[in-house]
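Researcher: Let's do a round of design. I'm pasting the structure tokens now; please hold your answer until I've finished.
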């Protein structure tokens, strides 16, 4: 009886491997039977752009490039796309138009969309999560170089909280599991030497509140995290490779939890809030040069209790806080934070379906929507004129066809 069962198992395994082999051959063959049905050489061969160092702090993003393919060269019999790379797009916000663009080759996986501004003089970087390649766009000559960073991860847009800071080091975050626990890892990319530092900051992930690190004016990175039922602020001096932790507050498991995340650095102060519902009613404000100096201020609620802080930006060194409420559409609420009395001064509110990307340019706060990466879509609020712009929307096809 055992021999019969054993023979059946062997027969099943043989049939399984034969079927598996045939399926793989068919799949590979099918992929090889899809041929290009459109000519995108005018995109893939444009690997540089005009110098744009004369522009005033332009907005630079990346957009994916796909090659259309049809089965046996016929789209009606079957159609698919192959990712060929990305384009860097330079948007001149003062003239409200695209200045130029250029192609960055490679299967980058998930790209930044917002190019990361690093270094002095600044350059613009994009990294695909899956390739280990980093594209570097130089505004002086408009050329792109490809850097093999040795680490497969995207560069974090840490400078989006303060556009006046151009750090030397970029962050490459990743997640890892060991001993049944999840960890948030951070490595650093040096924009001066174009090298990746294998030294890793390792933080435990106890909830979803590990968010964007923030930069202070000295170029140090700050991040909030939890460990052993306590809230901490971590500071990393990337130049000297020193990581310090500072206790902020115990976690109250009985009430809302009070797991604090870092919402931004405002001059010499860190703003933290509880991102766990129901929200803790106050922000915690910490002096980053003396973290024993803490105070709490009420969180403003213009629309409802579900208003939450998305980003802090600066216009002429004055902090503006962007809140979001998505109960009925997506409402953006903007406050000016008065540093003298820590009071919130309401500026405006309007509907716009924004993503994570916010820029300050001149007296304007630009909000971008990157959910559809084939569109450049934005809206701005001018803190001086109080103007709320119409939505600006430029498609990928418009970009690549208007400048060749």
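Researcher: That's everything. Go ahead.
Model: Designed sequence:
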């Amino acid at each position: 009886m055992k021999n019969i069962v054993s023979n059946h198992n062997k027969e099943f395994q043989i049939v399984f491997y034969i079927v598996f082999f045939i399926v793989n051959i068919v799949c590979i063959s099918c992929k090889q039977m899809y041929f290009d049905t459109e000519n995108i050489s005018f995109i893939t061969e444009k690997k540089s752009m005009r110098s744009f160092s004369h522009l005033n702090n332009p907005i630079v993003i990346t957009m994916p490039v796909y090659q259309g393919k049809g089965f046996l060269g016929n789209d009606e019999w079957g159609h698919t796309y192959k990712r060929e790379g990305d384009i860097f797009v330079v948007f001149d916000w003062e003239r409200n138009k695209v200045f130029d663009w250029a192609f960055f080759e490679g299967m980058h996986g998930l790209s930044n969309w917002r190019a990361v501004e690093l270094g002095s003089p600044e350059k613009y970087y994009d990294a695909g999560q899956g390739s280990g390649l980093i594209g570097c766009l130089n505004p002086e000559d408009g050329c792109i170089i490809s850097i093999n960073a040795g680490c497969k991860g995207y560069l974090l847009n840490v400078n989006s909280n303060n556009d006046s800071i151009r750090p030397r080091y970029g962050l490459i975050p990743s997640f890892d599991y060991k001993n049944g626990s999840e960890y948030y890892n951070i490595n650093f990319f040096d924009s001066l030497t174009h090298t990746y530092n294998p030294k890793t900051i390792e933080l435990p992930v106890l909830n979803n509140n590990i968010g964007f690190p923030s930069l202070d004016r000295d170029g140090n990175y700050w991040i909030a995290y939890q460990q052993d039922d306590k809230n901490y602020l971590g500071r990393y001096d990337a130049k000297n490779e020193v990581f310090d932790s500072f206790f902020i507050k115990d976690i109250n498991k009985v009430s809302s939890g009070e797991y604090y995340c870092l919402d931004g650095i405002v001059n010499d102060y860190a703003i933290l809030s509880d991102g766990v519902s129901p929200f803790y009613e106050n922000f915690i404000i910490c002096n980053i040069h003396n973290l024993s100096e803490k105070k709490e201020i009420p969180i403003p609620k213009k629309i409802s209790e579900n208003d939450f802080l998305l980003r802090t930006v600066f216009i002429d060194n004055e902090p503006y806080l962007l809140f979001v409420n998505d109960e009925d559409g997506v409402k953006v609420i903007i406050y000016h934070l008065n540093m003298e009395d820590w009071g919130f001064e309401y500026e405006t509110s309007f509907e716009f379906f924004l993503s994570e990307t916010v820029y300050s340019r001149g007296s304007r706060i630009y909000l971008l929507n990157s959910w559809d990466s084939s569109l450049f879509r934005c809206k701005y609020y001018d803190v001086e004129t109080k103007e709320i712009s119409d939505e600006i929307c430029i498609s990928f096809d418009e970009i690549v066809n208007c400048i060749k």
